[in-house]
Amino acid sequence: MPFTAQELEHAANAAIAFHKDTPKVAAQTIQDKPLYTAMRAAEKMFPGGKDQITVRVKGIYSTTIQGFTADDSVSYGNPANIKQAVYNWYLIHSGITFTMHELLKSGISIVDSTTGEKTSQASRSEKIMLANLLDDKLEDMKEGTERGMNEMFWLDGTQDAELSPGVTSFIVDDPTADLTVAGLNQVSHTWWRNRASLTINLGSGPESGAVLNTLQYEVRQLRRYGGMKKSKWLAGSDMMDRIEKELKAQGYYTQTGWANKGRIDGSVSDLAFKGNDIDYDPTLDDLGWSKRLYVIDTDAIKPMVIDGEADKDHAPARPENVYAFYRARTWVGGLTCNRRNSSGVYAFA
Question: Residues 6 or more apart from 56 whose CB is under 8 A from it?
Fold first, then answer.
């Protein structure tokens, strides 16, 4: 099968004849992915063989105290308040393909012609390669996988039934709505609700401190049932800008914020609240949520992955009649939540 126009252009860009230097390709559109990083750091394993991931949760306590004197009768309770939050696990795949022909044109020889796992550079190939074509394809797969996983961890699962629902399936915009999350209805189980305030009134201007005042109140509520021990605070650019303006309006500058090596520094320090760093997540801007701040309890919300199935690499054998090779990576698991009232979402109109 002949090369496609895209493959020819890629090979031409990656291999310039007798080029003396071999600089790497300079990526132009890679963004930070703080949610992806936090979720992967919080990831836990579970054994295979289960159809679903089950998390036991409890929000009601029925045992109480009772006063008595002399031979008064007393009563006994039989607590039965455990509920089950149930999550599916998903098989996530990313993969690339390449041909022997295009690698040879870039000075790379295939040693193992069954799977293409072993490669060697042809003699003097470093003089004709502007960039290693195979390395570029593998880097593309790595970054593409992380972008896809990052988006999956953010979205609520309605975008694709075969992808795991992300944090916005647990941290919903309206926690009072008639909605069932992980098998539990949040109307009938009032303790199974996240915090939310999406219409913060900004008042007359930044000097009102509307966002900061809202967060001051909300922190107490997030701590109320044991949250805030491990929280990730992620904000869009407009929310970051608003908080910075409120700080400036109230004169909250650090010493380093006023002067730096003899120059006046007009910036405020990197943002934090109650000891929690507020990080900018570019994905929120991409999703149209630039005015939002998510407080995510990573002790309660975390991925569960089948043991041995996180970032599993595959090199499938090629078809016997085609010299095309394949690389793939799989991740098998799902995002789980065992407490919602320690996470929240905040925004202004």
Answer: 82, 83, 84, 85
Sign of CA dihedral 236, 241, 244, 249: negative
Secondary element (H or E) of residue 199: strand 195-200
Per-residue pLDDT of 129-174, as tens digits, reads 545 777 888 889 999 999 999 999 999 999 999 999 999 999 999 9
- Residues facing 303 on adjacent strands: 335
pTM of the model: 0.85
- Judge whether 306 and 45 are in contact, CB under 8 Å: yes
CA-CA distance, 249 to 211, in Å (whole number)? 13
Q: How many CB atoms lie within 10 A of CB 96?
A: 15
- Residue written as tokens 């992300």? 166
Joined together, the tokens standing for residue 248 give 């400036």
Classified as helix, coil or strand, 330 is strand
Distance of CA 42 to the CA centre of its chain: 11
- Separation CA 110–CA 141 (nearest Å): 19
- ∠ CA 209-213-214, rounded to 5°: 120
The torsion angles phi and psi of 292, rounded to 5 degrees, stand at -105, 155
For the chain, the residue count is 349
pLDDT of residue 11: 54
Strand-pair partners of 83: 57
d(CA 83, CA 55): 8
